[in-house]
C-alpha cells in the first residue's frame, strides 16, 4: 500500500489539510483511508454498553456493526502498536494518509505555521519531502508548498507515490 504522512506540531493545521486532501484525492477517483495518531487514550465505547462489557470481560476485538458502518476495537493490553502493525490491519486502498507518527519511517509533508510556536521538523528528518506553509520560509532543501493550495499538495503527494495522472 502507498502511505504518505502529514506531520507538524499541534495547531499547525494538519487535520484541516488532511480533510481537504481526502476530499481532493477521492474527488480524483482514488480510494483513500486515513490513520490518525493520538497521544491520549481513545475509547469509542461507553461503560454499560454491551460492547464495553465484552471488552471488559476480556475480548481481544469487538466489532460494532450497523447498516452504514462498522467499527473494530482492538484491545492491545500492552505497548502502543507501531504504524506498521496498524497499516497491516487496513483494507487495501490506493493511498493511506497518516496524520502524526512524525518519527516513523515513511515519506511526509510537514505542515508549518509560525503561530504553533515550534521550529521546523524538516531539517532533522530526511523523510520530510516538502513543507506546506502559509508564510515565506526562504530557501529549504525540499519544496515549499502553499498550505492553502490543496490541489498543489495533492499533486505533489500523488506524484511521490506514483499515482499521478
From TrEMBL:
One Pfam short name: MobB
SUPFAM superfamilies noted in UniProt: P-loop containing nucleoside triphosphate hydrolases
InterPro entries in the cross-refs: MGD_biosynthesis_adapter, MobB_dom, P-loop_NTPase
Domain of life: Bacteria
Domain Molybdopterin-guanine dinucleotide biosynthesis protein B (MobB): 4-134
Protein name: Molybdopterin-guanine dinucleotide biosynthesis protein B
Organism classification: Bacteria, Pseudomonadati, Pseudomonadota, Alphaproteobacteria, Rhodobacterales
